[in-house]
């Protein structure tokens, strides 16, 4: 909803305009996107500036807050390469650095950019077909063989394979030079990233400036993603194909984007371990058996895709994938060998290749590039070394070039001479490139607009109707005034790209037309890995709740001024449970209060609430595409509530409030899962994990407090821990008594916190899970839950003791193992060799 305010006067608008532009000076020798050579604002920026000047400083800050909250609430994040903590995949995540000013480009100018990007995508696609096919360009001398065979991205086992280098998604990094022309700085053909971030930038700024977005007729992005999805669907041999997005996993720099795109486009997010080869085809390991994968959109490097024929050290790929490609049984997008045309060494040859292969001149020129694998070009680079940017010809190879190009003229003399020697010794590994000064665009800082260097990434997708270019993209904006290089690392921002139109823009949606919708009520395939993580997410959340209830019960009794009989023994038992739980340290010098504080905040104690919430968030990060924004926000809220940054430990009262607030957040997640999640296989495994963990925790609580010598205070603590106080008080007008309490928390099928209730729910959920066998025999999880249900229904509270309660606990733990063996370790043991239901 647009934020409403009073219409400012002409004078007020003029004052705000002057304040925004005060001191805005384009950098010398650069093209500025906002200000023309005459010092005036460029015409296509005037509508944007006029809308901004209609907003007061407070209103602008409100709009910025809307955009920033969208980024925060949806968890938009990225990683810098190497910034990884394997213990916590979310620890190294950085909030997406959104700039609030978009790059505005008029539609007429965009037509040239789009035509140039589509032409370049077609050229590289045609070249890939030739490289992995007849290799005519090498045979006729248009392309040196060493540029192909010397590249680590050329995959020899794919030579001659159908669709070996098929290009489905292409991205070009563009920069505008001082003359106003757009230049191609680099090609992205391996596994182009950023399309999802471009969409998130659009959603954030459209939320902040909806009125401006409509009035300026900004081109929509949905039609591009519609074309991308249609292009992938068209590559399959089946009417309703199963399309997978193959991710390297949660430690990848752009994992958020991959999960976001999988959810947005309706694709199945998989890791290498989720896929397996059977009978020459690729299948997804699911809870219902192996399901055929028709199209795989990969986000891992080509040589990591198959440890059998490519990189044996890869743990990310699928053994046998190359064979499936050779047999034409799966389509890979982009093709496994597509990265070979991404090399800088190729850029100097593309103008001639365009004329030869397309009979056209390049619409968008390259930045001037000299490959040092040729004698004449190497001599030019060495002669003009101080004037050039030196970069790896192929992938980064070390020798100081790990992070990309370096400016040779700025190196110390000794390093520059060492670089010269390396180029002389092995020139094919290097290119020299002209140093291009980038254009600048406005960034809002301290109430004013300031010019900063910018590059533009534009995407093109192969669709059934040809190449379709995203009408926008995203720009990367440097915080430094140096306009010679920009890369997405610390100190760089990103923003949306607004392509304006002279006419109202057609509304496009990813939803098909009504007459083409095939109604279904099943969510779809659930990979075993996703089921495993949903199961453990439920367990970690329930484990966190149990710890918080222990802490609250302990602190509540410490705060209580009235001392009930047996209170000292109850406090000791609660503290001992926290130690046995792994939530707090034991030993001398520990008080109940310090143990409760550790159980809340400590990361050194694996069972603390903070530690288990982090484990829950880590587990959730692997299945991010299956969780709502509200659910993800709750994880962040709980983690913030339980994180204590040094300082004085909280008092007993403060700690009690922290535990209470965290329990409310957990209750909110439980409400989301119960009311918002479709009752499909994913929800079932989440619920099974919760029920199992709750049943185990209740058994442990009962073993510690429901002894024949238990005090009324101890039984009262047991009712607190199982959240059964109100039910007990409504049934029994007396102090807690052993047998009624045991019946309520262990055997009562009407109490949603009892073990019997958990068993009934488990029985229902497990009965609805798919079976792998068709011989009529019960599988292990079903056999165990039926046995457990029979025990619950025939047990009597008067006969329950520590031993019989322990038996319930062990049966629940055995059920957990049986579920894991059946659904989470498919094809890893003897059962895998006789799996049925391949589809």
From TrEMBL:
Biological source species: Bosea lathyri
Domain DUF403: 526-824
Protein known as: Uncharacterized conserved protein, circularly permuted ATPgrasp superfamily
Residue span, Circularly permuted ATP-grasp type domain: 102-477
